[in-house]
Design a protein that fits this description.
Length: 108
């Protein structure tokens, strides 16, 4: 399966370890382009959008505050990609994310 991981940059080490585990299981995996490189925001969004379009499923690590991750989640939502929550900090928006992810996982 082709899996794109989206997430808050503070979880990059966890996302990288998770990606390696998925690869050992035979999946193709793309990690997000993060904002700690020499990229502008538009480039980040375009690269992450391309990964989300490529993927059959999205796996998400989110701290509940990262606007970039929220934007990536919205792209996954708009593209009707199923989203699996790997980690989600407790926040008020949590209920919307959990409901969507649960509904999409039941469709696949």
């Amino acid at each position: 399966m082709k899996i794109a991981i989206i997430g808050s940059s503070q979880y990059y080490e966890k996302m990288f370890a998770y990606a390696e585990m998925l690869k050992r299981k035979g999946h193709e995996v793309r990690l997000p382009v993060l904002d700690d490189g020499d990229f502008d925001e538009l480039h980040l969004m375009e690269q992450n959008r391309d990964s989300i379009e490529w993927a059959e499923e999205i796996h998400m690590f989110w701290d509940g505050r990262s606007q970039g991750t929220w934007g990536d989640f919205c792209m996954a939502f708009a593209l009707r990609r199923p989203v699996k929550l790997v980690y989600l900090e407790q926040k008020s928006i949590r209920n919307i994310v959990v409901k969507y992810c649960e509904e999409e996982c039941h469709k696949s």
